[in-house]
Amino acid sequence: MTVETTTEAPTIEESEIDESGIDPAPSRLTILDPRTGALVGTLDVQDPAAVGDAVARAREAFPAWRRTPAAERGAMLHAAADALEVRADEVARIQSSETGKAVDDAHGGIAAAVGTLRQYAELGPVHRGRSLQGGIDAVDLAVHRPRGVVAVLTPWNDPVAITAGLVGAALATGNTVVHKPSERCPHTGALVNEILAACFPLDVLIPLVGDGSTGSALVAHPEVDVVAHVGSSVTGRAIHLAAAAHDAHVIRENGGNDALIVDAGVDPEWAAAQAAIGAFANAGQICTSVERIFVHRAVAEPFVAALVREAEALTVPGVLGPLVDERLRQGVHHHVEAAVAAGARALTGGTVPDGPGTFYPATVLADCTPDMAVMAEETFGPVAPVMVVDDVEEALVRAADDRYGLAATILTASMETAHRAIAELDVGTIKVNAVFGGAPGGSAQPRRASGAGFGYGPELLDEMTTTTVVHLGLPRTAVTS
């Protein structure tokens, strides 16, 4: 998929917010299928005036929505889940055409979205405050209150599930929402917003279509109380600075440079299969994809050989999907080329294929070093850079030496080593012996360049609310004779 506008393109990753300022000139988004290059459609970008109108309408709708009983809000979220489930085929098809994600995979994200909406439909009414221990003649309470207008900015790589999480938690707690999907999948975002908004009162959920200028106007609006963003780290930092100017609360899950440690003593074939899932699933376009691999020298040779076989099995047409657009493909290939120029070896892949679309082959790089961009930065493509280490101590030190803090995985037969990884890796999520997975309702707290605040789970309800402490004492009445 390629995004084109008639105004100057945003200059930062993801293009969800434009740091260079807001261009008031109208523009259009032109979306191309990343498999074939065929036109998916065009949409008008909404200008700052439209953004201001959306925020004003959401602000006006807020008092009535916050007074709506939580159980009624939950019932509407259940209705939204039902409506999304009924139209899952339609949503999956348009998402696939815009992002290149396989239809079956898109259905998986939609199913997760339906489950998430139902989760918040149930969690919202039981979102508890606390009682505090005070004197016998008074009651002290900590009570949750909705914050107000929530600006939600969602990415293209898992747009439906992430929308359900952020929008669902915001609405369940009595906030109103203005939602701008990524400019890389605006048709998907528009359709999902249409389905969800129809289940709520007017202006409780307001959609926007736009590019970086639209995101800038939304984040900078002084009547926005919360900004919830999933996307790149560069964009996340810009959003945090813009939101701080008017004291908005910021929740953000941003990029990661997730490490995979392969310890001695594990089955190298199994470890390679795990690494392949982590690095190549959705063509590496997952926030928690494996971005760098540290393998113990004792198993390095059979592990790398097996990983190459896993990568080469994905060369069958249709098995590995395309990257979302040519801009991302060029960025991925630049990382690979720079690594090879600095001494890495491409054992398979590493070339831009001929033909239409934006495919990039599953690539295994050996002899990588920490200073290479492919190890130091998020590549966000189907690339598995491997560095051999002498022991698990070195692996843990290398994995921890990173400006990101999203997730990490360790494959080990040693419970002692697993506990060390849990203690020493300062990231939001640590996975032991499985690169993906987790219980429903799980949450995580990214670190450093990877974001701030809890995303998803019951803790996201806390992020979407403020806490008011109430001291309720006994009145003193006048004494009458």
UniProtKB/TrEMBL annotation:
Residue ranges occupied by any Aldehyde dehydrogenase domain in the UniProt entry: 27-470
Q: Which SUPFAM superfamilies match?
A: ALDH-like (SSF53720)
- According to the record, the residues making up region (Disordered) are 1-26
Q: Name one GO molecular function term.
A: oxidoreductase activity, acting on the aldehyde or oxo group of donors, NAD or NADP as acceptor
Q: Where is the composition biased (Acidic residues)?
A: 11-21
Under InterPro entries, the record lists: Ald_DH/histidinol_DH, Ald_DH_C, Ald_DH_N, Aldehyde_DH_dom
Q: Which UniProt keywords apply?
A: Oxidoreductase
* PANTHER family for this protein: ALDEHYDE DEHYDROGENASE-RELATED
Q: What is the name of this protein?
A: Aldehyde dehydrogenase
